[in-house]
Amino acid sequence: MRLQWRGAAWFHIVPSRFRAGGGPTSGDSGSKNTAKRQARRSRLAGVGIVVVLLMVSLFAIWSSQLAARAAAAATEASRQSQAFDRAAAAVAAEEALAHKYRLNPSVSVRADFNAASADLVAAFQQAYGDAGPEQRTLIQRARSRHDRYLSSIEEMFAAVDRNDTMEVSRIAGQEVDPEFNAIVVLVQGEADREHVVAMARIQEVQNLHDTVRGLVPLVFIIGLLMVAGLAAITRGYRKLLDAERAGALYASMHDGLTSLPNRTLMGDRLDELLKAGARTGATTGLLLMDLDRFKEVNDTFGHHYGDVLLRQIGPRLQTRLRSSDTVARLGGDEFAILLPNVGSLAAATRVADALQEALESPFHVEGVELEVEASIGVVISGRHGSDASTLLQHADTAMYVAKGSDLGVVAYESDTDTHSPERLVLLGELRHAIENDELFLHYQPTLDMGSGEVTGVEALVRWEHPTRGAVYPDDFVPLAEYTGLIGPLTRFVLNSALSQARSWVDEGAPLQVAVNLSARSLLDEHLPRSVEELLEAHGVPAALLKLEITESAIMADPERASRLLRGLADLGVEISIDDFGVGYTSLGQLKNLPISELKIDKSFVMTMHEDTSDALIVHSVIDLGHNLGLTIVAEGVENAEVLEHLSAYGCDDAQGYHLCRPIPAGEIDQWLSDRRGGRAGEDWGLRKWRNLATELFAQW
Ligand code: C2E
Ligand code: CA
Ligand code: CA
Fold first, then answer.
1. Which domains does the chain show, CATH number per domain?
2. Count of H-run helices and E-run strands, the chain
């Protein structure tokens, strides 16, 4: 990750529309709320159902009690009504039999009369039992009238038996008939009333029956609704459970922070793709991406910024991917990208390049602009492995090589694999080589283009391997860089170079020595102190040491690099920017750094005589560098033609095989004296070249 200088500060505050919002957390809380709502609704529905059930059962109890009471009342009313009907009938029978006796007295009529009157007494008895207090008074009144009636009847029957017609008529007219009429009025009245009451009670029962019959469908419908409600609740719960299960499954397969697939899901998908590929022959690409120096975002701005940044990575990458591709977060700042049917390694590498490009525009994290870079390891199925774990391991190795070498994108090669047995051996041997002085330095001079004087030499490390022979720095410096051996290596080179510088001082021909620093050395905060101690230890003036740092090493962390370079410059050491032009630094970005020299990368210099755009780049770097007061060195000068061009453009110093190859220190003295001897005769031809080149440039 490159926290680039943007303007004068680490970051600028940008409008709040860039502030990160939404994201998986808000989605999470949304689904949590829905689940809560669903649970509350289910609980409410449950309580509702209980209430409805309670109401229905209360209704059933209430209606059955009401019906029982109404039925009891109706039964009682009808019994009473029957009793009074019986009484009325008995009264009528008494009257009829009394008449019959008057006309035709006989024992049987008399017996019948007595039976009728006993029946009436029994009817009164029956009615009295069920009667209310008022009715009881009435019955008692009727009874006493009946008693009087009976005694009058006794007298009347006696008169009949005596054939005393006068007396019979008198008793009948004065006693029997009035009593009888009063009894009839009482009994008949009560019979009619009881009949009305009984009818009313029966009507009530009927009404109740109708009401209940009307309520039954309602209760049935309520029951149906309840069943439907229960079904809905059950369905709701099932849905809730399903959602929870799906949520848990999702969580186990996705990264909580970014919601991207996690290592497990990525592994599953890779397995599937490899299985399918084994049948169809399709090639799967796997990219392993690690953000560079992500830790520094966390350290500088806090974890919140890091989190927000991580959330933005997936969507940014997806803009360059097909919908069938998978971006997964494996953890920390490590991502994996699955490319189904990618076709070839070249195609997979192109995707990786596109992803790097996608990360180029800055990320906006809550008002802070952050620039991100990543290292990507590329593998494809078949060529780099046929199972997920081998592919992942190889992609990991390639990614580490990309990181260590600042290459950005690296496709897996078995010989860059430090985990391959051969690499592991080499690593072990390098450690051993540093300790056992198998390493030594070659020196390559740099010449002033105007005077042809040697301005200094660059120390280049060499390894004479006991069995492999010469091993070149490009083969082991990157290895050292990402394994922690770079510290001891740098120390060895500094120590040897300063010791040599001291020898040249002692010989009376002091030479400035340039030492290359790796990007990792810039992370070592003790470097200025170590350099100071070594200068002191060898008694070499600081001005005789130059440190070459690549622009990409500085841009990896400009603030830290600036601090460190200032510490070194304060010692009096000269700082040179190496391999200038291959990075993306503008000269403006370098103007605040304590540097005095730019070395134009040899990739432009070597071809500038045949490639006009390279020539143009070299020319403009020279012009702009001069405007900033910097000395410009061209490295990789391989022929006279290039030297002529450089001379025409006003380049200050030159270095390259055409002038001198890197050679052992012992040969430098020889070379120097040869040089001086030769120069007297040919004046290096530099002036001539410069004139010629100026002419050429004017035409061009
Ligand atoms: P560099 O710093 O750019 O060093 C220049 C490289 O270009 C050297 O390769 C040198 O031999 C080569 N070179 C010089 N003139 C020409 C030329 O005219 N044409 C071509 N094609 N090449 C030329 P070398 O020695 O193999 O070093 C390669 C790289 O290894 C160096 O690139 C530097 O980045 C690194 N390196 C070398 N020594 C050290 C060291 O002591 N410490 C660190 N950290 N890195 C080192
Ligand atoms: Ca160099
Ligand atoms: Ca260089």
1. 64-253 (1.20.120.1730), 263-415 (3.30.70.270), 668-700 (no CATH)
2. 22, 17
